[in-house]
Amino acid sequence: MKQRITVLGSTGSIGKNTLDVVSRHPERYEVFALSAATQVDLMLEQCAQFRPQFAVMASGPHAQLLAEKIQQNGLPTSVLQAQDALEIIASHESVDAVMAAIVGAAGLAPCLAAARAEKRLLLANKEALVVGGGLFMQAVRDGGATLLPIDSEHSAIFQCLPEDPACWAERVDHILLTASGGPFRTRAPETLAQITPQQACAHPNFSMGRKISVDSATMMNKALEVIEARWLFGLAPEQIKVVIHPQQIIHSMVQFNDASILAQLGTPDMRVPIACGLAWPERIESGASRLDFAALTALTFEQADDHRFPGLHLSWQALNAPEGTTAVLNAANEVAVEAFLAERLRFDHIHAVNLATLEAVPPSKPDSLESLLGLDAQARDAARRIAASMAL
Prior knowledge:
There is one protein chain. This protein has helices at 13-23, 40-50, 60-72, 85-91, 108-116, 127-143, 152-160, 168-171, 197-200, 210-218, 220-233, 271-279, 314-319, 325-341, 349-360, 369-389; strands spanning 3-8, 29-36, 54-57, 78-80, 97-100, 120-123, 146-149, 172-179, 240-244, 250-256, 261-265. The protein is of the alpha/beta class. Helix 6 (127-143) links the parallel strand 6 (120-123) and strand 7 (146-149). The longest helix is centred in the last third of the chain and has 21 residues, at 369-389.
């Protein structure tokens, strides 16, 4: 039987790559539902190619426009406009697997819905764990969901760890998340104030969305991945380390107690971890090019400079602080990056907004989605005020 897939965030980089992998295996997969924010024309193309049962847009006007175009083209897809439309397509009884690729805290509610509905959850949304933390992992356990990481680094760790999580504590010394270092790896820290959004979005290895690209440039993406790894793999913060590896051939590593290290290698192509998550424990063709060791140049590694990348080190501080702190950090960062992309905030002030918001908002341990969203809203309000005080 074919697996029926819901892709949350289908017009983004991860979503498009997911559909590329799915299209290579029509005998294994069919698309049940798609969701997007504002890209109506691209969503229309995806509906024409994959003919899903449902499509969801983030706003009423975009949904209405898509519905009109779908009707004009005679497509069978229904456009859902319900307030909980994302949760509906993530937890629908007809769905086998959910690709969670919505960027930001907006992806938390449908991720929780999929987890509680016992779905195979392919997690590309860092914030579900950064914001949700223990609450999200409890939903996975209670719902009997299968959680598979899609970030290339966490997928690499997942592939290197023993299959039985019960033995991780006695066998694993620490994990090493690799980072490209982004476009400013060698740039003098005193020049970071002059960086433009266009420069920050020019990632050396990947074509990504603007928000994720800025996070890569500040290394906040790696800070979020450290937090995510703590929850995914049940490790103590001090068991998670980061090393800069500009070539991005080694996607991450696990060091065991006997000093041996296992690493997952491959070309920097997100279709590889996506294919791994879709088919696990089997392996399927991803469409990525094969790694040619004869053509490789040297693989190099560097320490992450806390002067150039101060945001990275907030992850360990937040993990060692009261639960809820990571949700505050995530909200502050989303607000700061939005202000930077709108050219209202300097690049080097992103970290300043994050730090000041952590100091301004007292964390509280969230015990429900409502309390999580309340803490998120409180942190965003504080971050907006702080960002406005630093505005250009």
